[in-house]
Amino acid sequence: MAEKKTSPIVKDVKSELVFTKKNYQLLLISIAIVAVGFILMMGTTGDIYDFRRTLLAPLVVLFGFAFGIYAILKK
After folding, report:
1. Is residue 72 scored above 80 in pLDDT?
2. Is 36 exposed, middle or buried (0-12, 13-18, 19+ CB in 10 A)?
3. Using CA atoms, how far apart are residues 60 and 53, in angstroms rounded to an integer?
4. Is 3 a domain residue?
5. Which residue ranges run through the membrane (predicted)?
6. Which of 42, 41, 44, 46 is nearest to 61 (CA)?
7. Which helix (H) or strand (E) holds 14?
C-alpha cells in the first residue's frame, strides 16, 4: 500500500498588536497628565488647603485616568 503524503498545513497567521501606535501615544499623554496632577498635588507652599492642592490637582489626575481609559478603549 502506498502512503499518502500530506503537505503541511500552512496558516497565514498575521501577528497583530492589540493597540495601535495612536493608542500608545494617547496612553503616554495620559500618564503625563497624571504625573502633572501629582506634581501639582505636591505643591511648594505651606498651605495644605490651597485651591491647587485640594481641587485642581485631583481633577487633573482624574482627567488623566479617564483619558487613559479612553486611550485603551479607542479602536
Report:
1. yes
2. middle
3. 11
4. no
5. 24-43, 55-73
6. 41
7. none
